[in-house]
Write a structure and sequence with these properties.
This protein has 282 residues and is α/β, with parallel strands linked by helices. α3 packs across α4. It is globular and about 60 Å long.
């Protein structure tokens, strides 16, 4: 990817593009992990989930589970769908807490009606705009995806889909199929005046029309610059002060193990060595 300006979806279908080598490179890239975590945090924020209540979320195009890590850290449960076996293999190796399903979302969302309290998707929906096979029709695949997603979501819930549209025509195609399937809502654009930081989030409502959230901006309405990065850092520190364990700390590890036990998964017993950093070996 680094040596080419071509978009990933132009280089082959996702199940072939994200082979074993690409899946591992994607997951081990610290910059990618950081961006994915930031976009996941923003997507979950836009869902407007109730406070202190665990929800069941669908992660479309979950990949190796980077977005799922954030969902789990917030105390929610999730099921991830992806078309790349290599990506899901990495997710299994990473022992993510969500359940995983190998599936092409262009064929539809195969879950019972009203099952999910919300849905997020990071950098996946634009792949449905390409016809990788003769039988593929992007408008039909998008409509199949959105119509079955609408059915699988609980009334009053939201779907927040972060995407990288290639052009305005592609953006219009995606939005039109979502509205045709019954969704209301629209596009939330963060940092619209920044070439690098600009992000598109399709925020969709199920059953009832809600107020579309405002996009983040580096400027206030009166033209004064805001300190968005500083505010975000302060909010993170405050959240830790309120009781959220620092990631990778002993408390964070114990909380994660307890969540896995409640899910019925086999977990090693807690000992005095749990969470203790190992000494470097020479």
């Amino acid at each position: 990817m680094a040596g080419s300006g071509r978009r990933p979806e132009h280089r082959g279908p996702p199940e072939l593009f994200y082979d074993e080598a690409e899946a591992r490179k994607y997951t081990q890239n610290s910059r990618v992990v950081e961006i994915q975590s930031q976009m996941s945090e923003r997507a979950v924020e836009l869902l407007g989930l109730p406070e202190d209540q665990p929800c069941l979320l669908l992660d479309v195009g979950c990949g190796s589970g980077l977005s799922g890590d954030y969902i789990s850290d917030k105390g929610h449960y999730w099921i991830g769908m992806d078309v790349s076996p290599a990506m899901l293999d990495v997710a299994v190796e990473r022992e993510v807490e969500g359940d995983l399903l190998l599936a092409d979302v262009g064929h539809g969302i195969p879950f019972r009606p009203g099952m999910f309290d919300g849905c997020i998707s990071i950098s996946a929906v634009q792949w449905l705009c390409n016809a990788d096979k003769k039988s593929h029709s992007p408008p039909k695949r998008l409509y199949r995806f959105f119509s079955t997603l609408y059915t699988a979501l609980a009334r009053g819930s939201r779907a927040v889909l972060q995407l990288y549209p290639e052009n305005s025509e592609q953006l219009e195609l995606i939005t039109a199929q979502a509205m045709r399937a019954g969704f209301t809502g629209g596009m939330v654009v963060d940092y619209p005046n920044s070439a690098k930081a600009k992000k598109f989030f399709l925020c969709l409502f199920v059953g009832v029309s809600g107020t579309l959230p405002k996009g983040l901006s580096t400027e206030c309405a009166d033209g004064e610059e805001t300190h968005q990065a500083k505010f975000t850092n302060e909010r993170t520190r405050f959240r830790n002060i309120k009781g959220k364990s620092v990631k990778k700390s002993r408390d964070w590890i114990l909380e994660k193990k307890e969540r896995r036990r409640r899910q019925g998964k086999e977990v090693r017993a807690d000992t005095k060595y749990t969470g203790r950093k190992r000494r470097p070996r020479f």
